Amino acid sequence: MNERHHQRLNQIFSDLADExxxxxxxxxxxxxxxxxxxxxxxxADSELAPYKPIIYPQGSFAxxxxxxxxxxxxxxVDAVCxxxxxxxxxxxxxxxxxxxxxxxxxxxxxxxxIDPPEGSRRCxxxxxxxxxxFHLDVLPAIPDDYRWLLDLGVPYELAESAICITDSxxxxxxxxxxxxxxxGYAAWFKSQMQMRLDEAKYAHAKALLRGIDEAKYAHxxxxxxxxxxxxxxxxxxxxxxxxxxxxxxxxxxxNGDDDKPISIIITTLAAxxxxxxxxxxxxxLNVVPRMRGQIGQRNGVFWVPNPVNPQExxxxxxxxxxxxxxxxxxxxxxxxxxxxxxxxxxxxxxxxGYLVEAFGQRDGEAAMAKFASRxxxxxxxxxxxxxxxxxxxxxxxxxxxxRPSRPWRP
Length: 410
Description:
By secondary structure, the protein is an alpha+beta fold.
């Protein structure tokens, strides 16, 4: 491994992650938006008030891996609207209507912002002013009886937030409610990077206090107090940066292809393969080659289990359409090869062109400009990186099957 190139690549990819990432201001804006929706749903005269509605984020905004939209795309924020009802008290159709009717109430500020007016398959989508490039998907939900997850070995602190959700495509033909657990997944994801998250918050708190403390070093108690005020989205861990880079690489490579690798699989495999790497350079070097080792098989079917519901296979569509698996492994193989090539002398000479091609002109050129500016000022950070031994021998690399298998069912 060329240590000097790796140090430089760590700096370049860190700058690239900054360009790709959604800034903290957008996370705050998203929080203000869904908190405002929650307040409207829970007003004293609301028909939902007796059911104590709670709204919270899910998806990439919940785990801090959202990326800045490309082109004319909008910020897509997903939120759960949880009502304290049971499946014995309400049907899926009724639950969806309860939330939708409140959002479209004559006095609601959202009544003309719902599109489509009848709602989508699972959510109600609120489109804000076009200039904000922002929409919010609100998913109606009720608490699930989580004891079945405990029987599967899911820890109580992750299982207790399980929910039942609505699905207009199946509610007339299947009496069973669809199940989900986005809050449990977010808690699991955070646990995979907790040490680095705590470190990042501590460093951020010290930097904030240093700017106002004449001695330039705050007392430990002051730092700890400041840490408590820092939101998770105010800082980034190497795991989050890695996932953002992987998602943007995927987006540029497979733009418009419905069979492209999906974000939940990328996020889950990266989080499972992460071993507290200290920076993005180490994460790319070590985590990406370990991701394939997290993919299992059950009865000949590829299996990427939901860490908070082992019966759910995030890769279930791979068995239905073999091309999805082929593209994923093709993409993963190429990622490993591309990074190894950048570590060579000839590869590093082409890094600027690679970034533009793989991540887009704006972000690629911005990352290189930052690196060049830092280098010209002699302030490039020296980073010592160590490559971990591969946990999987080359001969055991998982490859897609020759033909699709039938989905496995427990």
